Give the backbone structure.
Amino acid sequence: MDFNNECVSCFIFEKLDTLSGSYAAKVFQATHMPVFEAFSVAMALWLAYQLVVNGLFKGELDFRVVGIQASVLVVVSVLLRQQSLVWEYIYYPARDLLGGVPQWFVKPAGGISDSSLVGLLRLVEKEIRAVLDAAWLIGKQAGFSSIYLLFAAVLMILPYLFVWLVFCAFVIEGIFKLLAMTAFSSFLIAFAGFPMTRGFAVSGFRVLLSGILTVVFAALSMGFTLEVVQFFTGDLPRDGAGLSAETAGRYVASGSYWGLVILGFISILLHLKAATIASNISGANDGPGAAAAVVGAGMSAVGLAKAGSMWAASRSARLAGAGGRRAFQEIMKRMGK
């Protein structure tokens, strides 16, 4: 996919998805045979223990239990030796769920022609950009003559830019969890072969499920956000045709503008809840780390902007004071003459 200014996130995430898949395949290729050899040794030791200790010495050999466990070990052995099976039955289904299921919750807000994750990102970026473009047009009409319109444009941008970044962070988190569990899958498959280590495999599955469900619930929140955007920006020309300072002023003073802004901030809270809901359902001990990183970065940027504005105001006041003193001294000097 070539770079396209109309969908920056599509280009980034498609490259990220391709690179993560190829890297996971390389890691699995490098680890599956050593893991298979270690697993074969463990399987031979288990079989010897069952036949010698439980069969000869204790007389407690249960052929039904041993048969079921042996069948599990055979399946695990086949999966460890055949990378194509892991990709066909684990990686590709998980990736399809990550890209396909979230679209069910966003499609009501707009048509998606591409069934992959790229189609979802394209629709999200299109609608978010509509808000950003509308805010830019309002700010452009305001210029420096109307501080109120300029402030209204910034207030309109903030929640939706934040929501977009949080959603992208959740998608990155989902891709990384898929990468991590796929790259580590040879170990997880081997752990699934024995009851005493099966909990590690279950935990890995929960982490993968948590990543998928996080994107699903984030998509649900984003679908609601896009519905809000389409409803409250219906009165505002999206291409700027006919948008004057008077039109921008009327829109900013209307209930549509304030509904858009207030529900935009509510959408941030909904997105932050996505990871918590996904963790509760999947059972993974995880939190909104990606969203927290975006929130932390945003707060840092706001703090820097605030500090910069205060410094600029202080500097301007000092310069104005110095200029005033000089002007006063010059006036008094001339009056003395």
